[in-house]
Amino acid sequence: QVQLVESGGGLVQPGGSLRLSCVASGFAFSDYAMNWYRQAPGKERELVAAISSSGSSANYAKTVQGRATVSRDVAKNTVYLQLASLKPEDTAMYYCNAAGFSDGYYRTYWGQGTQVTVSS
Predict the structure, then answer these.
(1) Whole-number pLDDT of residue 25
(2) CA Rg, the chain, in Å?
């Protein structure tokens, strides 16, 4: 059974930081690129950060560039998103996503999300 379980969300003050975690199971974690998306009410889903299957490259949305770091730990089947200098605009549900080819098919998996609220 494929599972992506996010954690680390919560209420944080503007200017603060947090680290989100996503634990993967049920598939070949090291073969998949891992992505973090977020969506706020009334807004479109946004790709926040992406990291390649090997962990050798990462990309970030302009809205978080310079404030975000995505990393992965193959031994723990876990991907992380570190967010610093948090702003109210960062408030959203954050989703972990896996994407890659397996046995000739392109597959994607989604977690259920973790809520991040930035407010004083």
Answers:
(1) 98
(2) 14
